[in-house]
Amino acid sequence: MPWISDRIADLASAFLTQAVVTRKTALSDHFVRVDLRSDKFRSASWTPGCKVQLRPETGTLGMRTYTPFAWDAAEGTTSLVGYVHGTGPASRWFDQVKPGDPCELMGPRRSLDLTGLASSVVFVGDESSVGLAAALRETRADGVTYVLEAADPAEYTEVLAGLGVTATVVPKKRHDLLDVPGSGAYDLVVTGDAATVGPIRRAARDRTPRPAKILGKAYWAEGRTGLD
Ligand SMILES: Cc1cc2nc3c(=O)[nH]c(=O)nc-3n(C[C@H](O)[C@H](O)[C@H](O)COP(=O)(O)OP(=O)(O)OC[C@H]3O[C@@H](n4cnc5c(N)ncnc54)[C@H](O)[C@@H]3O)c2cc1C
User: 201 CB less than 6 Å from ligand 1?
Assistant: First the structure.
């Protein structure tokens, strides 16, 4: 009975925050920054590392998760960067959206809390970690070693630099290159491909010195849609 799910999807609109796209910036062939504004953002509780879940296709129940940064409660604005990796609903949304378009979303909600990290941090991720890297960069200019994997390391290095993040970007599936030991007391933040997050977390436990704290979350997994 498809009309039941259509009706539920219609009703869901009432519970979603309605925002508007104020600007779209192509950062490269595969990365798009979208700036959003909503009066609801003024009163929302946001901390660096929070997530939002956007509904890329009106009239459906499919949500996709992104990491807002540049959160400005006074102005009611924030930004997302989407990695346009294929033809999933969110990739299409980032590709096709234009200023003035609506954006329906839930959140911000807690995901990884980037406040209260040690003064030294090792940040491991991939293209889907782009928003989290930008959010962490805003909280601190120093003390973070960013090591990320990407299908196109040169492209991603430049995108990250444009967001103020100086990173070492290695080819995908080179877990050995991602396994960067910290020194002294440090925390590890690891996000991105589920196939990477697991091995890095396990390897970190045997490392000397071990990270004092590990914040880890798989952001996507091969063959699965809308993880989270
Ligand atoms: C807490 C959290 C925060 C996130 N923040 C961001 C962010 O700031 N920016 C961002 O770009 N992404 C972010 N992601 C990841 C994003 O939600 C997923 O990549 C999402 O699946 C994309 O939706 P889609 O509709 O394009 O593809 P889907 O319909 O979900 O998937 C279609 C196909 O593409 C594959 N796929 C999904 N993601 C990727 C990828 N990154 N690389 C290669 N193949 C992929 C899937 O395995 C599937 O086979 C975040 C995820 C979580 C859980």
Answer: no
Q: Please report the atom of ligand 1 found closest to the CA of residue 65.
A: 17
Task: Give the pLDDT score at 5.
Answer: 58
Mean predicted confidence (pLDDT) in 13-26: 92
Decide: 66 in ligand 1 pocket, CB within 6 A.
yes
Which protein residue's CA is at the shortest distance from atom 22 of ligand 1? 90
Compute the distance between CA of residue 198 and CA of residue 88 in angstroms, rounded to an integer.
24
Q: What is the CATH number of the domain that holds 43?
A: 2.40.30.10
Helices 130-139 and 153-162 cross at an angle (nearest 10°) of 40
Ligand 1 mutation pick, 84, 128, 190, 222, max ligand atoms within 8 A of CB: 128
User: Which domain range does residue 7 map to?
Assistant: 2-109
User: Is 92 close to ligand 1, i.e. is its CB under 6 Å away?
Assistant: no
Question: H or E stretch including 135?
Answer: helix 130-139
Query: With 60 as the cut, is the pLDDT of residue 8 above it?
Result: no
pTM exceeds 0.90, yes or no? yes
Contact 181, 209 (CB under 8 A): yes
> What's residue 7's pLDDT?
57
Q: In this structure, what are the phi and psi dihedrals at residue 168, rounded to the nearest 5 degrees?
A: -95, 120
- Domain end among 79, 109, 139: 109
What would the mean pLDDT of 168-187 be, rounded to a whole number? Answer: 85
